[in-house]
Amino acid sequence: MDGWPIFAGMAGFFSKLLISFFKALPDCRMRRGIRFPQWWMLLVAILAILSGQGSLLEMERFAKRHRKTLNQLLGSYIAKSPSDSTFCWLLSQLDMEG
After folding, report:
1. pLDDT per residue rounded down to tens, the chain (98 residues)
2. Would the pTM of this model clear 0.85, i.e. be above it?
3. How far is CA 95 from the centre of its chain?
4. How many of the other CB atoms lie within 10 Å of CB of 87?
5. Which of 10, 23, 46, 89 has the fewest CB atoms within 10 Å of its CB?
């Protein structure tokens, strides 16, 4: 059990690295009407998928369930969770080839 703090530090490092990567991705959405940061939605989608909740509706439910905790941990302020159609729109707009 003595090695667990090393893993906790690595998890913090990799989570910051992942968030930095998501923030660096170009946002192909139109600027008008954007309510949710792309990086936040991508992070929620990945966390939902890793939790076995990969459908759009499950991503919406995951976001609703964990929004407050994510806001606290990430220092973000997301007032309302994105809907399944918002996840659908964002994921359909991603450039998977570039």
Report:
1. 455 455 455 566 677 888 888 888 888 777 777 889 999 999 999 999 999 999 999 999 999 999 999 998 888 899 999 999 999 999 988 876 65
2. no
3. 17
4. 24
5. 10
